[in-house]
Design goal:
about 260 residues; transmembrane helix; 10 helices; cell membrane; mainly alpha; Probable membrane transporter protein
Length: about 260
């Protein structure tokens, strides 16, 4: 990929900035960044695109995580085990990814997304304020289960991981959208790191492209996190609904293409 043009790099930089912003607010930046890579490099191996995408993503999640940590009082007693379980889950997902047909995931993900979207829209009070549903060991056990399950999904497939973390933290544990988004960033950082532990030794990262994605992701992640903190849970919830709808349309289209192929 040494012949990458300036025009392609500028296109990817713009996509990565938007992806970093979306990811920082509510997760789901991969909906923008990965398709942009597919358009820019249609002949590249999928593993190259996934690995390069992860380098850009981890730069953005690092920046947004630090911004949330400075500006929102995140409960690290929950966030730390959540992230640790997500790291392990992502490693396991990456290991078994080659054994599971990717097409098998789409119908399941589509059903889950429709349910998540309807549940959020029909319950406007959801996530506006924190109302934790568990305490003590049950709370931490639920956080570990969420981290492991969503982390495994990220390692095996990936798109929309941040949004799934946010919804699980809001819908299962009872956090407000803003704090859930902050915790989701830490967990998503862990899943990205786990994926890179697998990808980097394989030598499949397109580093020139990854550097452009990383810088743009950092800028978008910083601005997105600051805006989310300033506007609060209501704003994060609105962006969440938009991203879930977009993700549903994307996965729905992919599922339809599989059925008619």
């Amino acid at each position: 990929m040494d012949d990458v043009t300036v025009g392609v790099l500028l296109f990817l930089a713009a996509a990565a900035f938007v992806a970093g912003w979306v990811d920082a607010v509510v997760g789901g930046g991969g909906l923008v960044q990965l398709p942009a890579l597919l358009v820019a490099f249609p002949q590249a191996a999928p593993v190259q695109l996934l690995a390069t995408n992860k380098v850009g993503s981890i730069a953005g999640t690092t920046t947004s995580s630090l911004t949330y940590l400075r500006r929102v009082r995140l409960d690290l007693r929950t966030a730390a085990p959540l992230a640790a379980a997500a790291f392990v889950g992502s490693l396991l997902g990456a290991v078994v990814a080659s054994w599971i047909p990717r097409a098998a995931f789409n119908p399941v993900i589509l059903v889950v997304l429709v349910a998540v979207g309807l549940f959020t829209v029909l319950r406007p009070e959801l996530g506006q304020v924190a109302a934790l549903r568990f305490d003590g060991r049950r709370h931490y056990a639920a956080a570990l289960c969420i981290g492991a399950a969503v982390g495994f999904y990220d390692g095996a497939l990936g798109p929309g991981t941040g949004s799934f973390f946010v919804f699980a933290l809001v819908g299962v544990l009872g956090y407000g959208f803003l704090e859930a988004s902050g915790k989701a960033k830490l967990a998503n950082f862990a899943t990205n790191l786990a994926a890179l532990v697998v990808f980097v030794p394989q030598g499949v990262v397109m580093w020139q492209v990854a550097a452009v994605l990383a810088v743009s992701n950092v800028a978008g992640g910083y601005l997105g996190a600051r805006l989310a903190v300033a506007r609060g849970s209501r704003f994060v919830r609105a962006v969440f609904v938009v991203v879930v709808c977009a993700f549903t349309l994307r996965i729905g289209w992919d599922t339809w293409q599989q059925l008619v192929a």
